[in-house]
Amino acid sequence: MSESTHRRHTSPELPPAGTTLVELSGIGKRYGNIIALRGVSTSVRAAEVTCVLGDNGAGKSTFIKIIAGAHVHSEGTMIVDGQERRFASPRDALDAGIATVYQDLAVVALMPIWRNFFLGSELRRGPLLDIKAMRAITRDALAKMGIDLRDVDQPVGTLSGGERQCVAIARAVHFGARVLILDEPTAALGVKQSGVVLRYIAAARGRGLGVVFITHNPHHAWLVGDRFVVLKRGLAMCDKEKSELTLDELVGLMSGGAELDALRHELAG
Amino acid sequence: MTTTAPEGSTGERDPAPATLADRETRAAQSAAIADERVAETGLVRKALTRPELGAAVAAAAILVFFLVMAPSFRTPAGIANVLDASSLLGIMAIAVALLMIGGEFDLSAGVQTASAALLATIVSYQLTLNVWAGVFISLGVTMLIGAMNGFLLARTGLPSFIVTLGTFFVLQGLNLAVTKLITGSVLATGVATLDGWESVRAVFASEIPFFGAHLKISVVWWLGLTALAAVLLTRTRFGNWIFAAGGAKIAARQVGVPVTRVKTLLYMGVSLCAWIVGTITMARSGSVQANLGIGLEFEYIIAAVIGGCLMTGGFGSVIGAALGALIFGMTKQGIPAAQWDNDWYKLFLGVMLLGATVLNTAVRRRATGVKE
């Protein structure tokens, strides 16, 4: 109860938990005669985390680029807020409330946190920056994501990888994202830092956002996911809710159980 | 089933109190960790976020040194001389520093001062115009040179070092060849008899009383422009974009910063300052040497680097560049005032540049690499 009050307080325009924000059916993408993705269906709902898993080259990037507006799908339909959409640019997707946090995070390491937070969307009073307000909002937005930085003047470069992710996520949330696409946020991180990022993903979900979490780590996905899509060579191997799966099944789907058995046999021999 | 059911999938959300409490505890823990770190490195980091710190310390040390060693340093006339020697370099250092923070170099900055001065002089004299007309035509053309630098950089994708090295030679050739072609010598002159000369002199080359000595108006231009540029860099949106364009071009583009436009405007800023310096040079003597400014581009860059600008962009300060120029001015005046051989000046420059670069690199490593 208190949590939903909190959510309404922070982002009044977010729909109730469980509302379908993005519905994909039979989505596919061809590059010339190469089929990068075929027949993928899933949904992203408010206050849920949809995990997209797959090995390198499985089609994860193509999949998120379609939702993020970087590519237009060549098959299937994408319904955003009840309307069929084909995003012409990332700007289109952003305007529909879909924000993407890429691996490189789009942060400038030498710039203070608050300058990074507002980069490209600076608050001004007349011709000058409203530094006081930007500092306060940055501190506040980060605190809401569960990270308490006393000093938002330190360069982003001094933060850990996980904390930088958090700044990028908090920025996307603050600037009106309702759907947050996270492109392998834990890929370059150690165990502890990954934990930090997973916590922020849970925090974003707790605030009512629909999260698309791209990863190749089924253990990370299992910790925060509500729905799992496993891609393999451009096809969806599974689109299931957490209740329909077990972690072992997910790991098996990911690594290809039979292939793993063969490998085990080979290495043992 | 109920334990693994996704939260909110049923449309009802009733978070367990344990989860909330847990989250709060974790938040408190992370807060404690963050605070600890801030307390630990607070002072060091605070100092490191001021890029001009090194230059301020060096400037103070050099000032004290020459105050002791060179008696003429202690007079108002001596101070006026130092400020004058710093001012022209300082005006250019402002624009070059902003450009460097934006991630680029301009090797044509020095010869642009000559181009601006020659243009104003030759156009006014040859067409017998009011000097102001020549000065403003020169402004337009010089700004075009800057825009061209930015355009070439954006279109070719080449390093600015190469692009502006090209501009440097083109302008150097033009300055000499065109001046010779039109005036028959490498000296452009004759503006002092034209209309508007007195008022141009008043704006660009007058002197103001300074404790019994005379202070050149270029010092006022320098200090004024420094203040303006410092506000621009640290207090405006454009300043934020300068840092971003130089610090991480791709990231800046991703969040909507018009990187190409920012860089082109910075090149035009260099041209604007080159025009101011060129006009001041012309207004002081009424004539311009066609080889003016060659080699000075490195002094501008050195002043900016001593002032804390990173060669790689994304970090630096206008105040620092002004201090860098002041260090130049003090040394230029201080070495002869202390009755030493002038050759020591170059040695000093090299040492300062190396010292500043090493310091700056350490700063950047500190700011970017600690947690990786």
Notes on the protein architecture:
The complex is a heterodimer of chains A (about 270) and B (about 375). Chain A has helices at about 1-10, 60-70, 90-95, 115-120, 130-145, 160-175, 190-205, 220-225, 245-255, 255-269; strands spanning about 20-30, 35-45, 50-55, 75-80, 85, 100, 125, 130, 180-185, 210-215, 225-230, 235-240. With about 270 residues, chain A is of the alpha/beta class. Chain A has a single domain, classed as P-loop containing nucleotide triphosphate hydrolases (Rossmann fold), CATH 3.40.50.300. The radius of gyration of chain A is 19 Å and the shape is globular. The relative contact order of chain B is 0.18. Chain B has 14 helices and 4 strands. Chain B is mostly helical and about 375 residues long. Chain B starts with 16 loop residues before the first helix and ends with a helix. In chain B, strands 1-4 form a two-stranded antiparallel ribbon. Chain B has a single domain (about 55-355), classed as ABC transporter involved in vitamin B12 uptake, BtuC (Orthogonal Bundle), CATH 1.10.3470. Mean pLDDT of chain B is about 85; it is low at about 1-40.
List the helices and strands and how they pair.
The complex is a heterodimer of chains A (269) and B (372).
Chain A (H helix, E strand, L loop, with lengths): L1 H9 L9 E12 L2 E12 L3 E6 L5 H9 L6 E6 L2 E2 L5 H6 L2 E4 L11 H6 L5 E2 L2 E2 L1 H14 L16 H14 L4 E5 L7 H16 L3 E6 L2 H7 L2 E6 L2 E7 L5 H9 L1 H12 L1
Parallel strand pairs in A: 3-10, 3-11, 6-9, 9-10
Antiparallel strand pairs in A: 1-2, 1-4, 4-5, 7-8, 11-12
Helix pairs in contact in A: 5-6, 6-7, 9-10
Chain B lengths: L16 H32 L4 H17 L6 H26 L7 H18 L4 H26 L3 H24 L3 E2 L8 H9 L1 E4 L2 E4 H19 L1 H11 L1 H6 L4 H27 L2 E2 L6 H11 L11 H20 L6 H26 L3
Antiparallel strand pairs in B: 1-4, 2-3
